[in-house]
Amino acid sequence: MESTVALSGSTSYKRRNVILGFMKIREKAVSAAPQPYKGLVRPFRGLRPAPDKASDVAAPPYDVLNSAEARERAAGKPLSFLHISKAEIDLPEGTDPMASEVYAKAAENLNKMVNDGVLIRDEAPCYYAYRIKMGDHIQTGAVVGASVAAYDTNDIRKHEFTRPDKEDDRVRQIEAVDAQTGPVLLTHRPHDDIKEALAKVSEAAPTYDVTADDGIQHTLWVIEDTLTLNILTASFESLGALYIADGHHRSASASRVAAARRDGAASDIAEYFLAVAFATDEMQVLDYNRVVTDLNGRMPEDFLDEVKQRFHLVKASQAAKPTEAHTYGMYLEGQWYMLAPKEDLPGEDQPVERLDVSLIHDRLIEPILGISDPRRDKRIDFVGGIRGMKELEKRVNSGEMEVAFALFPTRMKDLLAVADAGEVMPPKSTWFEPKLADGLVSYALWD
Fold first, then answer.
1. Strand partners for 314
2. Is the domain of 260 the same as that of 292?
């Protein structure tokens, strides 16, 4: 993007069987209650901006901005969806983003936008074709209602743990506004019928065509004809499984809300959650790089000697950006190096251990640099590939960090392999770009 157990590093891999046991117990407890399972996805009555308000409403995802950044981005934009997703910006500075008044303010702001006609709700259930363009990269997917039951039975598959506090935040947000406002990013194996249906829909004039402040273009089409709806529903069902790419906390919180509302519910509207699904061959995964503050008490030459025992090491004349899996760039004292593991790679039956993020951790970051828990250790930080190799050089050259590691992006096939095996990736394994916008379609939980 996640179960409520949050462990990481190689220590967590050794304890994975225990952790997965707790996850299965939790899933059995949830799935034991009666749950309507009518398919992986279904159309829904989207809550979305009036066509002339889409540019004013669309906003970055709630979790990519802190409160100060959100306050700045929303300045002078009273219709920005940030007033709902980051409602603390309308309260005094310093307000705790998880304070009860923040959720109440979010509900107040959403209700006002509905009452003012800024947000409208489709009369009948729809799917929505959603295209994102960032530079030369274009991806087109479908906005769907994804099944909570499929999530609970792992037909919508996970690859990350979640943190209870972040789940709690999303549950309180959903309950306060009575809607799911942050879409889960799903992926699936390519399917010709889905691709053809979305291509056909996108031949028409779009409902929205919004270019955000960062230059990313978001285009959306409402899909309401019965034939296309049926084709998409049947095609998604034939996939057998969907995969969470990003949004583990959002999907986990949707499951919790559905379970809490299940007894005596007048409808099954809460049994689905807001998601956007793209085929794996449409998506773009960028590298997720590592920087470390020190060499764990070693001098640079001693550190290099230890690295050479575990990796083939060659000096590079320029930024050593990996061009294939299982190779790494390393920046130390103004010099780039290319690294490749000396020992054999783990087998295909070890999908987590084969990941590049696992290999560099298990063979260098933990044994040499002494970082066992990258989620909590303050000596390590993570740099998304969107910032480029210059950011790694900058962090080291400034003296803030002592060494940087450039990784090859996690491949979609590896993500699917981990999820299919019921395993969990290390933290900071995937960086998806471009990001979905908040506000273009929300999933209202009222009938």
1. 338
2. no
CA distance 377 to 399: 19
Chain position carrying tokens 């709630």? 62
Claim to verify: residue 131 and residue 266 sit in the same structural domain:
yes
Quick check: 48 pLDDT over 60? yes
Long-range (24+ apart) CB contacts under 8 A made by 73-82 are: 73/213, 79/53, 79/113, 79/118, 80/56, 80/439, 81/57, 81/181, 81/438, 81/439, 82/438
Q: Are residues 295 and 206 in the same domain?
A: no
**Lowest-confidence region among 81-85, 356-360, 385-389:** 385-389
Question: What one-character DSSP code corresponds to residue 437?
Answer: P
Give the relative orientation of helices 226-239 and 192-201 as an angle to the nearest 10 degrees: 150
Mean pLDDT, residues 77-99: 97
The residue segments making up the domain with residue 98 are 9-284+433-444
Q: Looking at the domain assignment, is residue 4 inside a domain?
A: no
So what's the pLDDT on residue 143?
A: 98
Please say whether the beta carbons of 391 and 399 come within 8 A. no
Q: Tell me what pLDDT residue 38 has.
A: 59
**Model pTM score:** 0.87
Residue range 159-210, pLDDT digits in tens:
998 989 999 999 999 999 999 999 999 999 999 999 999 999 999 999 999 9
35 and 126 together in one domain: yes
Residue 311's domain is classified under what CATH number?
A: 3.30.1760
Total domain count, the chain: 2
Please give the single-letter amino acid code of residue 103: Y
3-class SS at 441? coil
Written as one letter, the residue type at 440 is L
Residue 421 lies in a domain: no
Burial class (CB in 10 A: 0-12, 13-18, 19+), 296: middle
